[in-house]
Write a structure and sequence with these properties.
- The chain is an alpha/beta fold.
- Helix content is 15%, strand content 32%.
- The chain is built from 4 helices and 13 strands.
- α3 packs parallel to α4.
Amino acid sequence: MIENIEVFTQSSIRITDGDCRIYIDPFQMSEAPKDADFILITHDHYDHFSPEDIEKVSNGRSVLLVPAKMIPQADKISSIVGEIHSVMPGEHYGINGLEFDTVAAYNNLKPFHPKSAGWVGYILQIDGQRIYIAGDTDMNRDNQDVKCDVALVPIGGKFTMDAKKAAEFINTIQPSIAIPTHYGSIVGKKEDADVFAAGVKAPIRTEIKMLY
């Protein structure tokens, strides 16, 4: 499964499952593949909800998933997608064949991502694996017990966990594979991935997937 996960700029992710292509927070896409079956948005910050990049990946029939409070924003781009569905944290969903859980994504003390906003991370169930895309978050009471096989977590600091805190989070939830995101462009340095990897304890394996 790991070879089917791509990380582009910031937290822009593409997961391929056979003929199905799932994008999470597409941002600064260098191409316009227009091949998305699903587009999942974690929250409404410009580097996660980018109508320009949603248009680049949408094939016109794509299913757009957004946190419930984002529906007014999503409705403004309804003409470039096929369907729009809202999600709430802490729920299980099955939409058009995609099974997933949502997890609350928020900061504990920083003001950038308040819990009250209802923003989310996603745990996708694909090919017998649970793939967790954390969104912009700290380790918190809602995500510290996540069970997953692969975890994609932010490491850039300032708005989210830094590399050391992200490694502590990974060591807590114990996936088989950890993939760092949200660094190397707007926040964080490329070297943060090395700090993160050094802090992740065996047998967890770190995979650096970021494309700049």
